[in-house]
């Protein structure tokens, strides 16, 4: 089973022994309330680094809900993790690829750039090994770096849209997905993820939809859609009448994978606490029946 190179690279990284006064709390997935609740995104209270503030080697940044954490690892790699049970496995969602630089730290600069420096380096001394390229001279808002709802975002001072804002694009989404007229506003883009009590579901940037077990991080199901020249989206577009699809971002909107549940208007999908990802009829749901398709992973958690 192929999963993205990021995860494979990070599996070999030593576990972090970070010094922090913050203790990760158990993430609280959204309750399954039926298709009327499908349009909620993952929530959180943001954690922020303001200009001049550093993320030292061995420290971490968490939002108040603690669904994810940003860790400046002692090996120099900056890693964004989705948190599972306290003290348990954490799923790497993104990393800066700067491992091999012990003692490196990250700095939110006054010029709007977020930079990782080697140990002993800095704005005057040099030694930058990675940055978001969000530097500039705009003064219409204050630059900052923040962690919220599963994504790390830098708001800079750049003069263009590309240099004003940088993001890991790893937003946590609700664990339900519905048919909708406004499909484009509810699509999952590559990098999006969600969770239940037992599993994570990630639409990876290699275009593969993968389910990971929280107990040990093992991949237990995937859509087989990795690769391709363009990023994909996952949606339950109203025009597909209940079919959950992964669609390539080209002019044709090529469908690369589907649940083949079309013909069921207002069907909805749910990532369940038992580890199963299920498409239900409009009136169906846990305890009600009406399942149209599932990953069959309820016995693998």
Write a structural description.
The two termini are 17 Å apart. The protein is elongated, with a radius of gyration of 20 Å. Strands 1-10-11-12 form a 4-stranded antiparallel sheet. It has a 4-stranded antiparallel sheet with strand order 2-7-8-9, with no helix packed on it. Strands 3-4-5-6 form a 4-stranded antiparallel sheet. The protein has 301 residues and is mainly β. The protein contains 3 helices and 24 strands. The protein has 2 domains: 140 residues, Agglutinin, subunit A (Orthogonal Prism); 119 residues, Agglutinin, subunit A (Orthogonal Prism), CATH 2.90.10.10. Strand 23 and strand 24 form a beta hairpin.
Would you summarize the structure shown here?
By secondary structure, the chain is mainly beta. About 5% of the residues lie in helices and about 35% in strands.
Give structural attributes.
301 residues; mainly beta; Agglutinin, subunit A; 2 domains; four-stranded antiparallel sheet; 3 helices; 24 strands; 36% strand; elongated
User: Any idea what the shape is?
Assistant: elongated
Q: Distance between termini?
A: 17 Å
What is the topology, as strand order, of the major beta sheet? 1-10-11-12
Radius of gyration: 20 Å
Estimated share of beta-strand residues: 35-45%
List the total number of helices: 3
Mean pLDDT: 85
What is the CATH level 1 assignment of the largest domain? Answer: Mainly Beta
User: How do the SSEs run, as a string of H and E?
Assistant: HEEEEEEEEEEEHEEHEEEEEEEEEEE
Structural class: mainly beta
Helix content class: under 10%
Number of E strands: 24
> What's the CATH architecture of the largest domain?
Orthogonal Prism
**Number of structurally distinct domains:** 2
Point out poorly predicted stretches. 1-33
The CATH homologous superfamily of the largest domain is termed Bulb-type lectin domain
Largest sheet: 4 strands, antiparallel
CATH topology of the largest domain: Agglutinin, subunit A
């Amino acid at each position: 089973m192929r999963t993205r190179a990021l995860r494979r690279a990070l599996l070999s990284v030593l576990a972090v022994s970070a010094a922090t006064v913050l203790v990760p709390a158990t993430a609280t997935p959204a309750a399954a309330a039926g298709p009327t609740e499908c349009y909620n995104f993952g929530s959180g209270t943001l954690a922020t680094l303001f200009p001049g503030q550093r993320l030292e080697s061995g420290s971490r940044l968490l939002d108040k809900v603690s669904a994810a954490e940003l860790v400046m690892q002692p090996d120099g790699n900056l890693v964004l993790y989705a948190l599972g049970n306290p003290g348990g496995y954490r799923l790497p969602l993104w990393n800066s690829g700067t491992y091999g630089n012990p003692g490196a730290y990250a700095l939110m600069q006054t010029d709007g750039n977020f930079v990782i420096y080697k140990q002993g380096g800095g704005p005057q001394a040099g030694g930058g090994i990675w940055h978001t390229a969000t530097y500039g001279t705009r003064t219409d808002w204050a630059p900052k770096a923040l962690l919220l709802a599963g994504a790390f975002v830098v708001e800079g001072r750049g003069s263009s849209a590309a240099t004003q804002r940088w993001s890991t694009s790893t937003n946590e989404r609700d664990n339900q997905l519905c048919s909708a007229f406004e499909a484009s506003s509810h699509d999952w883009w590559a990098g999006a993820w969600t969770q239940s009590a037992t599993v994570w579901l990630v639409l990876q940037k290699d275009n593969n939809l993968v389910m990971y077990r929280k107990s040990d991080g093992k991949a237990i199901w995937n859509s087989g859609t990795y690769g391709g020249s363009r990023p994909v989206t996952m949606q339950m577009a109203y025009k597909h009448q209940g079919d959950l699809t992964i669609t390539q971002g080209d002019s044709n909107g090529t469908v690369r994978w589907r649940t083949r549940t079309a013909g069921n208007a207002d069907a909805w999908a749910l990532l369940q606490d038992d580890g199963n990802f299920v498409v239900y009829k409009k009136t169906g749901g846990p305890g009600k029946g009406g399942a149209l398709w599932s990953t069959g992973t309820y016995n693998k958690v």
